[in-house]
Design brief:
It is a single chain. The chain is α+β, with helices and mostly antiparallel strands. The chain contains five helices and nine strands; from the N terminus they run βαβαβββββαββαα. A seven-stranded antiparallel sheet has the order 1-8-9-2-7-5-4. The chain is globular, with a radius of gyration of 26 Å.
Length: about 190
């Protein structure tokens, strides 16, 4: 039996922060490099990362990834282990750091990590500038996703509305009381030959 492939993630993707789009309305995204030690990179190759309380903080003209947990690499000794939740420096241009820092000082904006992936052998982090959603907007998003999902689950040959039916089928569907079809057999023009 063949292995099932994971269709949602590309092979270079390490992890995706699913909560970022749920909790924040993302206004802008940036790609940033990240400063890591060797055992962190080895742990990332195994997908051992958690974005649970991750955010981007600014200090002394630099951006740091805070609250992201990269598990210790299990094949190294206790002496060479890294701190799992240490602040990690993000590699961005000064202008990008200045614009992000200025925008986060506005009310309600924050910078969150959205995805971590490999690009040409280097670890990259996609960060997003976002505004926190309230409960009403979260419910609205769920409702829209549910409605769009119900239409996508219909088979392609099924008509989505009565206006999508051909003319012969429209006559068949007009029917009597309660919108029931007049006959139980085939629609006009499609009668079975005996």
């Amino acid at each position: 039996m063949a292995k099932k492939k994971n269709k949602t993630l590309s092979p270079d993707t390490i992890a995706v922060n699913k909560q970022a789009r749920r909790l924040y309305e993302i206004l802008e995204t940036f790609e940033a490099g990240i400063s890591l030690v060797g055992s962190e990179v080895k742990s990332l190759r195994g997908g051992q990362v958690s974005f649970k309380d991750g955010y981007v903080g600014f200090r002394d003209g630099s951006a740091f990834l805070l609250g992201v947990h990269i598990a210790p690499y299990e094949k190294t000794g206790t002496y060479d282990q890294h701190d799992p939740e240490r602040p990690r420096r993000l590699l961005l241009h000064k202008l990008e750091i200045a614009t992000l820092q200025a925008k986060t000082e506005q009310k309600g904006l924050t910078v969150v990590p959205m995805k971590m992936y490999f690009s040409r052998g280097k670890v990259k982090v996609q960060i997003g500038l976002g505004r926190g959603k309230n409960v009403h907007s979260k419910k609205q998003d769920l409702k829209e996703r549910d409605i769009s999902g119900s239409f996508s689950r219909l088979p392609p040959h099924e008509p989505r509305t009565r206006t999508d039916l051909p003319k012969a089928h429209k006559k068949f569907w007009k029917g009597g009381p309660g919108g029931k079809p007049l006959s139980r057999g085939f629609p006009p023009g499609r009668r079975r030959h005996s």
